[in-house]
Amino acid sequence: MTDRELINAAFAASENAWAPYSGFKVGAALLCSDGTVYTGCNVENASFGATICAERVAFSKAISDGRRKGFVMLAVAADSETYCMPCGMCRQFISEFSSDIEILSARGDGRYTSYRLSQLLPHPFEAYEG
């Protein structure tokens, strides 16, 4: 799958977003090593803390499908003027399952940038293994 195809899948997922409070619809597409793609969209809630981001939805769908590893790339997209970047909570969540996944961040005009998770979250919180 090409970067562009994964980004297009993320934009398509954003169409399903539930964003009545912010109006900011985000989509994510998670590529696995076997070519499977899991998509997600943000789901807002009147209790803002209960809102779930598109990235965590995509990962949660994969995890609930039994996947634990083999995550290759994540595209995050929104119809915005700036690149749509994973929030801090999502960065930490992603690090639990893929310490250095490639993340494509797209903006409304389709342009995108690429980062490794280690660039966006250089010092993740890690479980104590004492």
Polypeptide structure, described:
The protein is an alpha+beta fold and 130 residues long. The protein has 4 helices and 5 strands, in the order αββαβαββα. The chain has a 5-stranded mixed beta sheet. β4 (102-106) and β5 form a beta hairpin. The longest helix is centred in the first third of the chain and has 12 residues, at 3-14. The protein is globular, with a radius of gyration of 14 Å.
Could you name the key traits of this structure?
Cytidine Deaminase, domain 2, alpha+beta, 5-stranded mixed beta sheet, 4 helices, 5 strands, 130 residues, 27% helix, 23% strand
Number of helices: 4
Largest sheet: 5 strands, mixed
What's the total number of strands? 5
Shape: globular
Task: List the uncertain runs.
Answer: none
Helix content: 25-40%
